[in-house]
């Protein structure tokens, strides 16, 4: 009986460790694109997508390894974030504090519910000369980090 209990416990630990290794090697949050909403170079819109199965809770954004002064989570109920997207005065785009809203998994988003349900997520960062953005987040109560090097637009 003790041997069976030991084998069962050991099996659960191995499967759990394998699951954690799989999650860490395939993080759920990805950066799709980034753009400047206008010609001003201090604001960047970084489109993010949750490829996982559960919600993601954003924790912190670092720009060039420093905490920026102004960061917002942008939720679009319509079009993706492109260079021509009107951000100010658009009724389908809402701004939130970073930890205020979770990022819903993209595979569960109803693409027919345009204007009613969140379709796209982005992070709005206002900093001059951004070279690197680091997004710290939690998925399944485990901490993850997404780091993206941005190319210069000049």
Alpha-carbon Rg, integer: 19 Å
How far apart lie the N and C ends?
Answer: 69 Å
Shape: elongated
Largest beta sheet: strand ordering: 1-2-6-4-5
Mind summarizing the main beta sheet? 5 strands, antiparallel
State which percent range the strand residues make up: 35-45%
Query: Could you spell the SSE succession in H and E letters?
Result: HEEEEEEEE
Helix fraction by DSSP (H/I, runs of at least 4): 10-25%
Task: Report the count of strand segments.
Answer: 8
The number of helical segments is 1
Mean pLDDT score: 85
Low-confidence stretches: none
Please provide a written account of the structure.
By secondary structure, the chain is an alpha+beta fold. It is 16% helix and 37% strand. It has one helix at residues 2-25, and strands at residues 29-35, 43-50, 56-63, 70-76, 93-96, 120-126, 132-139, 142-149. The strands form 2 sheets. Strands 1-2-6-4-5 form a 5-stranded antiparallel β-sheet, with no helix packed on it. It has a 3-stranded antiparallel β-sheet with strand order 3-7-8, with no helix packed on it. Strand 7 (132-139) and strand 8 form a beta hairpin. The radius of gyration is 19 Å and the shape is elongated. The N and C termini lie far apart (69 Å). The mean pLDDT is 85.
């Amino acid at each position: 009986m003790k041997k069976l209990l030991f084998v069962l416990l050991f099996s659960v630990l191995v499967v759990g460790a394998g699951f954690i290794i799989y999650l860490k090697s395939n993080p759920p949050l990805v950066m799709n694109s980034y753009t400047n909403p206008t010609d001003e170079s201090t604001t960047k819109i970084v489109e993010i997508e949750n490829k996982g199965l559960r919600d993601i809770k954003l924790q912190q954004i670092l720009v060039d390894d420093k905490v920026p002064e102004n960061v917002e989570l942008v939720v679009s109920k319509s079009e993706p974030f492109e260079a021509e997207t009107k951000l100010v005065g658009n009724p389908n785009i809402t701004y939130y504090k970073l930890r205020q809203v979770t990022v819903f998994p993209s595979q569960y988003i109803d693409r027919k519910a345009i204007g009613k349900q969140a379709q796209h997520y982005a992070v709005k960062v206002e900093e001059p000369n951004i070279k690197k953005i680091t997004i710290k987040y939690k998925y399944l109560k485990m901490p993850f980090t997404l780091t993206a090097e941005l190319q210069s637009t000049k």
